[in-house]
Amino acid sequence: MKRDTQRGDHGRLWLCYAALVAARAAMVLATGYVHPDEWFQAPEITAGAVFGLEHTVTPWEWDPAFPCRTIVIPAITTGLPFVALREVGRLLMGDTAWAVTTRTLLYAPRLWMFCLSLLSDCAISLICRRHPRSFPLWPCLVCYASAWPVLLLSSRPLSNTAESILFSIALWAVLTLDSAAPTLALFKCFAAGVLAGAGMFCRPTFAFFSCLLPFYVLHVCGFSVFTWKLHLTWTNVRRVVQWAATAAVGVAAACFCFVAGDSYFFAGYGKLFEWPPVLTPLNFARYNANASNLAQHGLHPRYTHALVNLPLMFGPAALAVASAVASWLWSAKSRSAAMTVERLALCACVASGLALLSFVPHQEPRFLAPLAMPLALAAAPAFARAGALRRTSWIALAVAPALYFGLLHQAGIVPAIAHVDAAQNALQQLLPDAHTDVIFFHTYMPPRHLFVAGAATGNRTSFQQSATATAIAPVTFDSQMNTAPHVIEMSNHTAAELRERVEASTSAGACIYVVVPATLAEHVEYAFLLGGCSAHVEAEFLHLTNEDPPTDWHTLFALLRLRVYSVLCNRVTPS
User: Fold this and answer.
1) Quick one: DSSP state of residue 487?
2) Are 339 and 131 contacting, i.e. CB atoms less than 8 angstroms apart?
3) Which terminal CB of the chain, N or C, has fewer other CB atoms within 10 Å?
4) Between residues 452 and 82, which one has the greater pLDDT?
5) Of residues 95 and 216, which shows the higher confidence score?
6) What CA–CA distance (Å, rounded) separates 212 from 175?
7) CB 136 within 8 A of CB 6
8) Contact 168, 119 (CB under 8 A)
């Protein structure tokens, strides 16, 4: 009877996990805008390199004089799908331009990131099979898949997402070490070293989450600081030395590859190695060690990660782990029964990452994304013991932020870009020399690489493949064919300043589009009226901005919109 009950429970959890993975895949299509870094940390850079786009924005992290980001991780997360997109266009259509649209540039890297995120699920499965008493398989998978950073952020090309995937695979390599299989153990040590080196170049904070994992390796070798049992034998000492040396070789190999790739990229596709070498993690650390630099991005109290960001990111799982750790500390019976060494090692990763990140005064919730897997594994026993109502509440609380950030938050920007780009493309069929100004008023930064107007017109190809171009090296670009709209950001300006900007664009003979939240529509339309400008609403898209939220709840749904205006100022004579 008990076995049948367990089998039925496993079946329900399997269906729940399958639904959550399907929801993760569906989030590839979600237009919500979580943070500007999801565009400007990777796709904005690699799209410009792969397709030769000249109108993309280069963030401060990519300044060749002081580069703080490696190119290798973005080349893997977004460069590879862009190269695949380029080559598919050449093979099927004979022209790269036909494969390059706003939607393909949006979905290609997201789909690839979704596939990469499944590596974390595989790592969890392997860990659960290695330690079935500590980690029940289906509760672990459901806990992990229901976390909203996994549901939504795992398909976004953020460096935090790449860091999370690398950390998950590193946890697999460490937690499945078995001294009884020496050859496989050496391979896993080498893999852990490679992942540690790659993680440090991806984000130096990788060390904060993984710095205590060597203690678990010592536990496997017989020197356990978790149980205070030391088996000092020649075999154990030799094993520690072999594993450490193998991991060090992996770290060195990864660092060699990353330094070579960064030197090649930041030297303008020149030499593989420069002197002094390009060490992006060191520059990253030097930049963040300066409080005045961090102040430009916002300073937070030291407790923000622990009291605000951790519950916001992981909700019930964070509370369950905190409760389990408190119980372990205060109850001798719980200490001996519930908290296994593997769970304790994961809790140590959570504690070290949380504590060390809290020393940095700039604290954003996404910085805690790598904690998704250790928290899910550590919280799974509590989820397995929970009843149906508690499990439903657990999943609902975990999924709700994904729906908000994926479907509502700044969700109109990408559809607005697609609309303006299509309008610009159609306009160029009639007026090849037409110029368009697009003004984004009180929105997040629009990603420039999604503007590809003119790239798909049969007789006006903006992208031309160079015969000597490498996979990530830039293609030849004809600047005269660059017909992408001119993007103007006015995130902190007044409606009167917007009108002046529109009048200036009209004087230059440009076609004008203004993208503005519906909550500010009355002020903007009134300013246009005072200036003698006519504005026509061409499109509306679902959109919520926390900076200018709706205040009239009676017309809430009408205000949850982002409007695209086409504007003409009759008082100004075009030149």
Assistant:
1) E
2) no
3) N
4) 82
5) 216
6) 12
7) no
8) yes
**pTM for the whole thing?**
0.90
Q: Is 6 helix (H, G, I), strand (E, B) or coil?
A: helix
Q: Which residue, 305, 328, 341, 329, is CA-closest to 382?
A: 328
* Mean of all residue pLDDT scores within the chain: 86
Cα separation, 16 vs 142, whole angstroms = 7
Burial of 22 (0-12, 13-18, 19+ CB in 10 A): exposed
pLDDT digits (tens, 9 = 90+) for 444-499: 999 999 998 754 433 333 333 332 333 444 333 333 344 678 899 998 899 889 98
- Of 186, 209, 187, the C-alpha closest to 199 is 209
Give the separation between CA 350 and CA 161, rounded to whole angstroms: 17
Query: What confidence score (pLDDT) does residue 436 get?
Result: 87
Closest by CA to 137, choosing from 151, 154, 116, 121, is 121
Rounded to an integer, the average pLDDT of 416-426 is 90
Q: From CA 105, how far away is CA 157, in angstroms rounded?
A: 12
Cα(17)–Cα(144) distance, integer angstroms? 9
Residue-level length of the chain: 575
| CA 351/CA 424 separation, integer angstroms | 52
How far is Cα 191 from Cα 182, in angstroms, rounded to an integer?
14
